[in-house]
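Lab manual, section 2.4: Encoding a predicted structure.

Procedure: take the sequence of the chain (185 residues), apply the prediction step described in section 2.3, and record the output as structure tokens. A sample record is shown.
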Amino acid sequence: MFRWVKELLSLGKQSTQVQESEELIDSRIDEILESVLKLSRAQAKQGLRVEGLENKLEGGFTEMRSEFASLAERDSSESSFNWSDLLDAMDTLEKACRSLEQREERDISAGLRGAIGRMERFLFEQAGISRINQTDGAPNGKLFRIVAVDGGLGPSDSLTTRVVRAAVLRGDKLMREGELIVNRV
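Recorded output:
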């Protein structure tokens, strides 16, 4: 335990050994200092690399946030898109189908109804819009408004005889009120 004290006291006697020991210690200290210097340089380089990666990561997050913001703007602008021209064209095609069926040209009418069906699927898939054509039973006052009365006699009052304009829903929200003609009020 006290060996280091004895060695310290015996250093005076062994001056040549001390000089060799000091040179050995100095060379080892130089090696250690050089290693510490290399390690600190390497650590500084790694710190710069980490800082560069952090900057790239933050830049990526900023870009991602701006993309999400532009997507949200695009979605909100698409939801405000006016579908009325397409919906009116579909109502006109349905009127043409009824006219063709009255003239007993059912093949052409079936083709037009197929096109209307494809457009309805497109509207539902792209915008969540569904058209409602109520042709049987009493009209639903929440979705349709009666615009005319057909003078014909029917089995019951207020039965729909013709849909003038289909009601349009986006989800559960009414986008456009439908218009009906009924047999009597």
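Check your result against the sample. The chain has a mean pLDDT of 76.
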